[in-house]
Each structure stands twice: as C-alpha cells, then as structure tokens.
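Weekly sync, protein design subgroup
Attendees: M.S., D.O., the rotation student, P.L. (late)

Item 1: inverse folding check
M.S. brought a backbone from last month's batch and wanted to see whether the design step gives back something sensible before we order anything. D.O. pointed out we never logged the input encoding, so this time it goes straight into the notes. Structure tokens as presented (201 positions):
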C-alpha cells in the first residue's frame, strides 16, 4: 500500500473513528513495512507506537510520524538492552566439568539496586543542605551577638522537642519557641528552598 493511501486512511480514521478503517490502516502499514518479520520485542513496540501515534494524530503526514516514532522506540530498546548487557556478570557453573570444551558462560544480572542508590544520594544531599542551613542561621545569630540563640541553634539537632531543648539550656519552652520564630526571619526561601523539605524525613 502506498504512503499516500496510508495517509488518506489515517485522515479518514481521524474523521470517522471507524474501527474498520483503523484495521485497514494497521494491516496496510504492517504489510508495507513487513512488521511480521521483526523480532517479537520490536513487533510489540510497533503495536505500542502505532496506538500512541494514532491517538495523538491530528492531521498531516501519518506515515512520517509513525516512522519517526517507531525508529526512536527501537533506539530506546537498543539502549535498554546495551545497559542490561553491561550490567550482566559472567559466572561459570560450578557443577560443569572444567575440562569440558562446551562450557558456556552463564549470565546473571549484577546485583544493583538503582532505587537504593537514589535514596542514599537524596538523604546525603538533604543532610548537607540541613548543615548548610544551620551554619547560615548560626552565623546570622552570631552577627546579632545573641548567645542564647547560638546555644539554641547548636543544641537543636540533639533534642526531640522544644521542651527537652529548653530544659537542657535552662530556658522555658516558650522562650525557646520565641527565639526560633525570631530566627525564622533570617531564613531565605529563595536561597534554601521550601522549609517543609527540611522537616521531611
């Protein structure tokens, strides 16, 4: 089937939304591109790409859009496969004879957990941000020569609540609360971001 006929079928489907037109379009593209001869992964990717393209198609050259999208999806598949191959580790099976000439390497995926690595990096960044914020607030308290404020900032991370902090410093909970609120005026949201990010675990 020619490119012009496929494009006209796509436009007709866009106007009518008839399943018979969609079926003719799908069969025409499969026949023209020999999709049945691709390996199963690529055939599956073609089906997904065809469906996505037909849903977002609103006129123009359908065949070029489908071709471009299918090419990019195949490139993505090749990239995923190469990443998977790089992370595989060859091991020799212990139950096979070492002198056997038909010894084949068995592959297992490397024990790698991306989620754990990302969580660890986020936690390290949050801790570094907290330390930078505390240092900034400590410096601003020293500028105002407030020894009580400096003591509160230094002791704050070691205590679970304001009551225990006040008790450790010999201050009332209300005095500690007022000092922390006055310290909040030195907080710069443009520089340090949302304050709720520092409170999240």
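Designed sequence read out in the meeting:
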């Amino acid at each position: 089937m020619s490119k012009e006929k496929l494009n006209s079928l796509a436009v007709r489907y866009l106007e009518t939304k008839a399943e018979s037109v969609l079926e003719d379009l799908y069969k025409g593209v499969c026949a023209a591109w020999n999709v049945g001869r691709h390996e199963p992964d690529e055939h599956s990717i073609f089906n997904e790409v065809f469906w996505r393209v037909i849903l977002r198609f609103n006129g123009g050259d359908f065949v070029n859009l489908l071709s471009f999208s299918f090419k990019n999806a195949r490139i993505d598949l090749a990239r995923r496969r190469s990443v998977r191959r790089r992370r595989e580790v060859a091991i020799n099976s212990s139950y096979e004879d070492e002198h056997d000439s038909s010894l084949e390497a068995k592959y297992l995926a490397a024990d790698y957990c991306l989620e754990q690595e990302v969580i660890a990096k986020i936690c390290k960044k949050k801790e570094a941000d907290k330390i930078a914020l505390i240092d900034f607030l400590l410096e601003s308290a020293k500028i105002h020569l407030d020894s009580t404020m400096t003591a509160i900032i230094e002791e704050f991370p070691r205590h679970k609540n304001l009551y225990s902090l006040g008790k450790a410093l010999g201050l009332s909970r209300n005095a500690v609360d007022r000092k922390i609120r006055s310290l909040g005026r030195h907080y710069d949201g443009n520089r340090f971001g949302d304050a709720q990010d520092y409170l999240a675990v």
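Discussion: Strands lie at 88-91, 106-109. The chain has a mean pLDDT of 78.
Action: P.L. to compare against the previous round before Friday.
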